[in-house]
């Protein structure tokens, strides 16, 4: 399968590397020129569960990808939410009428942007619990196990969804078809909405957050707000199940020592975060449905304040 990884940061690099290793034809597309140059000159270097590996995968700046002769069978979206529109514009010429687009972005509601560029029947939504860390240009740290749930948006595209599942599983990415992907996306949003922002504000890894005596109370309140907004859209979540999933991430033997992507963006790389597309969208939907969301509102404002303090633009 010919695959474009649109957004070759930490997670995009993981998926690109694993798909390439499984003999899929992969192209990485990103906007960070130093990262692209390093990959093209030295290969994509990875600490893969303690083993150092290098994969030679072609990488292109999104400003130049339109000139490349590559007709994609599958595009996997891994951009930051605020970069999605510009990325879709950049790769548009590489899409054909049968190109499938799988969105694995953090946050909620990205299909509204994607359908401006992609026929509805070719859009697939997914949720992944894989983790990855970007250690510098062209270097990633991959550890632990993960999984992917995905589903077609349009009726009648189940076979196409399962073809994507098969391709991902050839790369040992533990994918499976979901009959209720919006529920999975909201569960993942609960995790990100609790862990990402709090670890970024407190400047700690996930295990350290979990060790705090205040963590459970704060996280419970945040999850309540996500569940209320989901319920208003007829998406029903089990709070105990969600909290169990969040608490499992605290284990230092699994991903507890990981610093979430929002921490990596703001603290490590001084980049703007996706807070408006995680907790911020809950605030906006709260206003729409007249549901109070004070914890998500406060966390969103704290992250934006920290962006300003650190001079991030």
Kindly report how far apart the N and C termini lie: 38 Å
* CATH architectural arrangement of the largest domain: 3-Layer(aba) Sandwich
Q: How does the major sheet shape up?
A: 8 strands, mixed
Name of the CATH superfamily of the largest domain: NAD(P)-binding Rossmann-like Domain
Please report the first level of CATH classification, the CATH class of the largest domain.
Alpha Beta
InterPro entries: 6-PGluconate_DH-like_C_sf, 6PGD_dom2, ApbA, Ketopantoate_reductase, KPA_reductase, KPR_N, NAD(P)-bd_dom_sf
Keywords: NADP, Oxidoreductase, Pantothenate biosynthesis
GO molecular function, one term: 2-dehydropantoate 2-reductase activity
Function: Catalyzes the NADPH-dependent reduction of ketopantoate into pantoic acid.
